[in-house]
Amino acid sequence: MAAPSPGPREVLAPSPEAGGRAATWSSRHRGLLWRLRDRQVRLGLFEIDPGHELHRLTCMMQAGLWAATQVSMDHPPTGLPSEEDFSEVLTQAHEGFELGTLAGPAFARLRRSLGLAEEDYQAALGPGGPYLQFLSTSKSKASFFLSHDQRFFLKTQRRREVRALLAHLPRYVRHLQRHPHSLLARLLGVHSLRVAGGKKKYFIIMQSVFYPAGRISERARPSSWVSYRGGRRLLFLPWGEGPQRTWLLRQMELDTAFLQELNVLDYSLLMASQHLHEDERGRGSSLIFCTARSMQGAQSPQELETQNRRLLPDASNALHILDGPEHRYFLGLVDLATVYGLRKRLEHLWKTLRYPGRTFSTVSPAHYARRLCQWVEAHTE
Length: 381
Fold this sequence. Notes:
Blueprint: E1 9-11, H1 16-42, E2 45-47, H2 55-74, H3 83-87, E3 89-94, E4 97-102, H4 104-113, H5 118-125, E5 132-134, E6 144-146, E7 152-157, H6 159-178, E8 187-195, E9 200-207, E10 218-220, H7 243-261, E11 268-275, E12 288-289, H8 301-304, E13 311-312, E14 321-323, E15 327-334, H9 342-354, H10 365-378
Parallel strand pairs: 1-3
Antiparallel strand pairs: 2-5, 3-4, 4-8, 5-6, 6-7, 7-9, 8-9, 10-11, 11-15, 12-13, 14-15
């Protein structure tokens, strides 16, 4: 899909109040950050302070995102969604760089449907506190960041991956409407950034699967095709005969079938766990059967029957949380931009010829989806 043509050009800069919040935040919370520093290092998180090599880049991202979100706050989309919502590109000029917002109205609608206030989104991603660099074991050359409150995840993407995401965006939105409790990571924005005289870079913003992160004790990213040896079996038996596990397996089928329809593969299931604390136990009476916390679902009787809704814990980011008898689990499907096109088909053919009889991650989308669902079924009880 060809990239949409640029839209209007504006000059917007963070307000003086935003800069004041940054200074206040820095002095007020510096001590707390130092106390958390050792724990963050163990998790592969590093504060991007003024001495960091990526500090200038992230400051531009923060200033640009503050201004971009201000546009959606000043001019919220109204009426029914249109094709233009998914194709609009807004380029804003700043001192020394330009930031582009792709499909801005579509993402503004999506954030609103998730119950995410634009003011909170702007405060977390703007100049109110330093980003955290996340050191990933991914083979890609992407850079990974977290907002200072670890609520939002930012990742650089290749241009072809961004084009795939935007091409799939209308169907992605419809899938979330039909299945408000989907395990798919919530994509919240797609942007480009060009430093004066440089190449355009792209990055995406997602809601972090691991939020709130304060009590998480273990994390894993098991491959969908390699046996996860030594891993503890997950337990989803909080009520009777395991409705959580039944829900999980069904939702995995729905989500991977959707990704198969998009001809997507190489996605991963993120997992984390924590021991339930006393204030998290025995809260069955506070769980509500509701989709408003996640996204407004489809209203027709036929689609209501296929939503696969569940009881949502009374917690932040409840969509990706499942409670077991002793543990709370965080689960989400990420990396949704790899299409099984000619490049992947040739890669599979080459590996098959080079290493006969071996198993590879690069297989057909149908095989990939089936293998991941089988892994989840075998590793839950």
